[in-house]
Amino acid sequence: MCAHPRTRSEPEQRGLAKKVTNVLRRDGFALTEVGTESGYPLFAVEPVATLGASPGSEEVSVVLASFDEEGVHAAWQKAMARKNVDPEGAITSARTLLERVCKHVLDQQAISYKSSDDLPKLWKSCSESLNLAPSQHTLEPFKQVLGGCTSIVHGIGTIRDKIGDAHGQGRRPVKPKARHAALAVDFVGAMATFIVATYHDGPGRSE
After folding, report:
1. 87 touches 94 (CB < 8 A)
2. Which of 48, 89, 95, 120 has its CA 20 to 30 Å from the CA of residue 21?
3. pLDDT recorded at residue 157
4. Distance between CA 117 and CA 29 in Å, rounded?
5. Domains of the chain listed by start with CATH number
6. What is the DSSP string of 10-36?
7. Helices (H), the chain
8. C-alpha to C-alpha distances, 12 to 9, 77, 94, 162, 178, nearest whole angstrom
9. pLDDT digits over 112-144, tens only?
10. Are residues 90 and 177 in contact, defined by beta-carbon separation less than 8 angstroms?
11. Is the model more confident about 159 or about 189?
12. How far apart are CA 148 and CA 35, in angstroms?
């Protein structure tokens, strides 16, 4: 398959890269974007095990696997695997991860929620149940930090709606780069770990 910038458009190149990656994954490899030429992406073959790796990612993986192997950890693995080879998909997976963490925490506490609840609503219920809502604190630095977390959680949903692959886009779609996906995935990983740690530190759950 040829993905030369002079013969194929950028969407065609990225589509081919995804198809090739699906084949390469059988042998533990994938195509990852390593640069650009004349405004078009350049790809290289890399081992899947090294894709998306970042400081602390292994610790995040351990924490989430112990919390919920099939749901939460599976979403994390998907986000990490897609971070460099499929930025749009990685952003979608990042939001899915946060949604699953919030739902799992609420389920564990027998707190009900609607199947139609979006991430902001799930986070509101989850944060309040863990005493992480800004309104539950009086010390200004804590209120600012927790308020910032809430803003970023809402932002993850906005990014996904605007440039993630969960919604169709117009004639001039915004294409996220690997660095955008890395920012979203790495933040969500840190946030998910914080939520899990806070849950385990709750009354009657500390080791």
Report:
1. no
2. 95
3. 78
4. 37
5. 1-51 (no CATH), 53-200 (1.20.120)
6. HHHHHHHHHHHHHHHGGGTEEEEEEEE
7. 10-24, 57-67, 74-82, 87-108, 119-129, 140-163, 178-200
8. 5, 26, 25, 21, 18
9. 999 999 999 999 999 999 999 999 999 999 999
10. no
11. 189
12. 32
Cα–Cα nearest to 181, from 12, 27, 32:
32
pLDDT, tens digit (0-9, with 9 covering 90-100), for 94-118: 999 999 999 999 999 999 999 999 9
Alpha-carbon span 84 to 80, nearest angstrom: 8
Q: Contact 161/155 with Cβ under 8 angstroms?
A: no
In the block, tokens 């933040």 appear at: 187
Does residue 96 contact residue 111 with C-beta atoms inside 8 Å? Answer: no
What are the φ and ψ backbone dihedral angles of 119, each rounded to 5 degrees?
-60, -45
What does the block give as tokens for 77? 């693995």
Tokens of 155: 């932002």
Burial class (CB in 10 A: 0-12, 13-18, 19+), 70: exposed
Q: For residue 34, give both structure tokens.
A: 């390593």
Two tokens, residue 42: 């350049």
Task: Output the six-digit token pair for 52.
Answer: 């998306």
Structure confidence by residue, pLDDT tens digits, 161-207: 666 455 555 556 667 888 888 899 999 999 999 999 999 998 766 54
Please name every residue paired with 30 in a beta bridge, in sequence order, or none if there are none: 46
Measured between alpha carbons, how far is 132 from 122 in angstroms, rounded to an integer?
13
